[in-house]
Amino acid sequence: MITNLEIPDDETALAFGQTFDVPGVLEAMVAFLKPLIAEIVSAAPHVAPTVRFAGDGDRRAPLDEDGYARLRRETLAYARRWNVLGFVARVDVGTFQLRLYPLGRDDLQRIGAREPTLISEEDWRDLDPTPIVEFRPVTGFPLFEGKARSLVELLTRRHAPPGTKLDFERIPALRFPHRAFGTGLGTLRISLLTIPVEP
């Protein structure tokens, strides 16, 4: 939840809400990914983990130390401009896809001068700045069922860093809640997509 929304320009919204320790979140994300991916690769040695960053199109790179360094570098560069940005780095490992949202999963949008909404068109007040990692199949409908869902839950529980929270209500996810990764309350700079309207 956020309050006190202001729109200083077409690319940024300001609001009051929970702030997060971005470097701490990044290190916890990497600490989660490395052993989880290592376990998958040890069970399927032919698997070569890849990472794709927002703006890369379909170009993938190996998820190695350079890939982790780029995740840190790009996230911190974005964080200098926005506290909340639905920035995605996508990791593919075997049949699993992990979507990384170190600056929260939500963006805001507005059409012309109308009141902003979430990209899903829900109320802007429902924006959640909590960092999150989502799990999806590499192909197919973005839900896990049966044995695949049980495996995702097992791997997540086994490698979840202290302070994180498992969320299996809808899309399986690992959340980095404010009580463990927060830095208090304050002004958030939120990425805003403004869609111009012809007069």
Describe this structure as you would to a colleague.
The structure is a single chain. By secondary structure, the protein is of the alpha+beta class. It has one domain (22-105, 122-182). It contains four helices and twelve strands, in the order ββαββαβββββαββαβ. It has a seven-stranded antiparallel β-sheet with strand order 4-3-5-6-9-11-10, with helices on one face. The protein has a five-stranded mixed β-sheet with strand order 1-2-12-7-8. α1 runs antiparallel to α2 and α1 (22-43) packs across α3. The longest helix is centred in the first third of the chain and has 22 residues, at 22-43.
List keywords for this structure.
199 residues, alpha+beta, seven-stranded antiparallel sheet, five-stranded mixed sheet, 4 helices, 12 strands, 29% helix, globular
Summarize, please.
The protein is an alpha+beta fold. The chain has one domain (22-105, 122-182). The chain has 4 helices and 12 strands.
Proportion of helical residues: 25-40%
Give the neighbour order of strands across the main sheet: 4-3-5-6-9-11-10
The number of helical elements comes to: 4
Mean pLDDT: 92
Strand content of the residues, in percent?
Answer: 25-35%
Distance between the termini: 33 Å
* Cα-based radius of gyration, to the nearest Å: 17 Å
Strand/helix succession: EEHEEHEEEEEHEEHE
Question: Helix and strand layout, with pairings?
Answer:
Elements: E1 3-9, E2 12-20, H1 22-43, E3 50-53, E4 61-62, H2 65-81, E5 89-93, E6 96-101, E7 108-111, E8 117-118, E9 132-137, H3 146-159, E10 165-167, E11 173-175, H4 178-181, E12 182-195
Parallel strand pairs: 7-12
Antiparallel strand pairs: 1-2, 2-12, 3-4, 3-5, 5-6, 6-9, 7-8, 9-11, 10-11
Helix pairs in contact: 1-2, 1-3
